Amino acid sequence: MAELILVRHGQANSHATDEAGYDQLSDLGADQARWLGEHIAATNPHFDRVLTGTLQRQVDTAHHMGVTVTAQDPRLNELSYFALAQAAFDAHAIPVPTDPSEFATHLPRVITLWTTGDLPGVPESFDDFAARITEVLTEQCADAGRTLLVTSGGVIGMALRHVLDLDNTAMARVMLQINNASMHRLSYVHDTLMVAGFNAIPHLDRPDRAHARTFV
């Protein structure tokens, strides 16, 4: 049996206007990661492998969690949302969102255009993004034990699409619900990968941490 625990990075710089500006944890994001690490240390701290992507916010989340990273794998990096948004604006005059409420309607539209190949010039096709996530999951399921993967919301959404056979609209809706520093458990049993837990944030259940339950 293999168990995969996917963790979304802590809150990043939500005021950024490009990928580089976004790729750093906020002070709250560092706290979210630290609290998650404390929860894991107090409950079930053993992992056979710990992987992150190569993005700074993913690496820093693992650092603040207090886990020892086995390897960095660029296949766990997030989709290039700023590039997708710019392509949607250039090709279809879809305005780039300026607040979270606009993002909630923007993401499904952009994902739909991406899946149909209607976003010219983007750095990665939808099919290539899907393939790299599926490849990582398949590799990790080949080895028994527990693997922690510190990654991003789009990667987790794609993983759930793969496991649950979601359509692309449903995948976009799932992505919108993924909390910062949340845990998602996949179990590989009898040659089948199944969802065992979604969007868990037990480290933020305390009333004095209600402010830390963030999506962006």
Characteristic terms for this protein:
single chain; about 220 residues; alpha/beta; Rossmann fold; 2 domains; six-stranded mixed beta sheet; 6 strands; about 15% strand; globular
SSE order and pairing:
Layout: E1 2-8, H1 19-22, H2 27-43, E2 49-52, H3 56-65, E3 71-72, H4 81-92, H5 100-115, H6 126-141, E4 145-151, H7 153-164, H8 168-176, E5 183-189, E6 192-200
Parallel strand pairs: 1-4, 2-3, 2-4
Antiparallel strand pairs: 1-5, 5-6
Question: Can you summarize this structure?
Answer:
With about 220 residues, this protein is an alpha/beta fold. It contains eight helices and six strands, in the order βααβαβαααβααββ.
Walk me through what this model shows.
By secondary structure, this protein is α/β, with parallel strands linked by helices. The protein folds into two domains: 2-79 and 124-202, Rossmann fold, CATH 3.40.50; 80-122, no CATH class. Helices cover 44% and strands 17% of the residues. The chain contains eight helices and six strands. The chain has helices at residues 19-22, 27-43, 56-65, 81-92, 100-115, 126-141, 153-164, 168-176; strands spanning 2-8, 49-52, 71-72, 145-151, 183-189, 192-200. It has a six-stranded mixed sheet with strand order 3-2-4-1-5-6. α7 (153-164) packs across α8. It is globular and about 50 Å long. The relative contact order is 0.21. The mean pLDDT is 96.
